Amino acid sequence: MQQRDNRRLKVWTRRAALVAGGQGLLLALLGGRLYQLQIVQQDKYATLADEQRINLRLLAPPRGRVVDRFGVPLATNRQNYRVSLIADQVANVDATLDAVAVLIPDSAAEFASVSGDSLDSHDIAAVAVADSVSPDGTVLGARIVLNPTTLPRLDAAGRRLVVQHELTHIASRADTDDQMPTWVIEGFADYVGNLDSGQPVRTAAAELSGEIRHGMVPAALPTGADFDGANTRLAQVYEESWLACRLIAARAGQQGLVRFYRDVSTAALSQPATAAAVGLQQVLHTGVASFTAQWRAYLQAELA
User: Fold this and answer.
1) What is the predicted pLDDT for the residue at 41?
2) Distance (Å, rounded) from C-alpha 193 to C-alpha 201?
């Protein structure tokens, strides 16, 4: 009996030694790895951490007016605009530059020539144009043309909205049919442009808000004719379209709004007059008249 107990004790002791040895080896490996990361490679990971925490950019210093002793200006300031591409924030710099170009003409005449728009462009901030669209939907020669006569009237938030709005037109071109209702195309672009802007709705739709507070509630969704560049209510028309798409997103979510846009585009191929009705029925399960009533109430709730 005693010999059997001795054999069991030896077996248990060997197992305990193996387990203890394995644990010791794991601790040694873990300690070695920690030493490598915190001591040997300290400088490398400290640099990587700083790169994640610090974003270095060149900021052009402002310069005051330079005048001679008689007060005649020798050098003055002029507002200009710059679009920056941050290389480490895009996957492919060359592809990004090929995909989108931003042009700022020197004059309204040059803007009309470059953009190909012969209409009254006094209230148009920018247009998105392209050379062609390939059969697979790829936009070729895409460029955003900013209106030099309108830009000085825009603040930083307004310029951001304009560029994002036009970028959305380019990005969604493959899913856009030219016969779609204009309020869907422009409202969708404004919805994306206003995302994360931080602006209150009454500020972003200031012109329309002023009308709503005076009881001037639009009776119907914007028509294609409302987007004429000579329309004195062009700003309000864009705001109406934006809030219509914002309402759809509030009801169906952003993915629902994207699905609505695509459904309208598909329906416009064969039935452009009822394309919006098809999209509303498929996404919100409602008709145009019902949605218009909801939209009018939404405008009053958000802007009054």
Assistant:
1) 78
2) 13
Q: Give the pLDDT confidence score for residue 148 in this predicted structure.
A: 75
Question: Domain-by-domain residue ranges, the chain?
Answer: 82-153, 176-304
pTM equals 0.62
* Cα 138 from Cα 145, distance rounded (Å): 19
Nearest by Cα to 294 from 262, 254, 248 = 248
Q: Using H for helix, E for strand and C for coil, what is the string for the chain?
A: CHHHHHHHHHHHHHHHHHHHHHHHHHHHHHHHHHHHHHHHCHHHHHHHHHHHHCCCCCCCCCCCCEECCCCCEEECCCCCCCCCCCHHHCCCHHHHHHHCEEECCCCHHHHHHHHCCCCCCCCCCEEEECCEECCCCCEECCEEEECCCCHHHCCHHHHHHHHHHHHHHHHCHHHCCCCCCHHHHHHHHHHHHHCCCCCCHHHHCHHHHHHHHCCCCCCCCCCHHHHCCCCCCHHHHHHHHHHHHHHHHHHHHHHHHHHHHHHHHHHHCCCHHHHHHHHHHHHHCCCHHHHHHHHHHHHHHHHC
